Amino acid sequence: MNTEAVIDASAIVALYTPEEASNWIRMKIEEYAQFHILDLTMYEVDNAIWRKGLLLKELNPSEMELVFKNIQLFTGSLCISHPYSEIRGETIRVATEHGLTIYDSAYISLALLIRTNFITTDAILADKLRKTELEDILVTPYHKAE
User: What is the DSSP letter of 3?
Assistant: First the structure.
């Protein structure tokens, strides 16, 4: 079993804010010792938290502050950040071949590069990866039910 995994912004946000997959991701991260993220991950995460607080009013200012702090502790202690330049070519290939966004393809490309699993709580992405060769690296609560 892999002790490392790539984790995307959706999973990090679900880890620290109430979402459908929050309990699942809290249990799932216990299976890994280290995570890999991209340099763009914190932009995505912080934007999602900002949106949940200021636009959707799901978090008050003190909750937002605590979430930002806890995410920084998590990424600072358990995550290795990789530059996009490391996986750009593969990202474009994955995006083109599978009709995925560059963002999603970047996480997948990182997982392929370091030969590990990819953790996401993005149900739409999980559905797109079903019945492709990329499904084998996918770790999600929305994985195939067979």
Answer: S
* Per-residue pLDDT tens over the stretch 94-133: 999 999 999 999 999 999 999 999 999 999 999 999 889 9
Which residue ranges form the domains of the chain, and what is each CATH number? 4-139 (3.40.50.1010)
- 129: buried, middle or exposed (CB in 10 Å: 19+, 13-18, 0-12)? buried
Q: State pTM to two decimals.
A: 0.94
* Pairing of the two strands 117-119 and 34-38: unpaired
- Give how far Cα 104 sits from Cα of 7, 30, 121, 134, Å: 11, 23, 12, 12
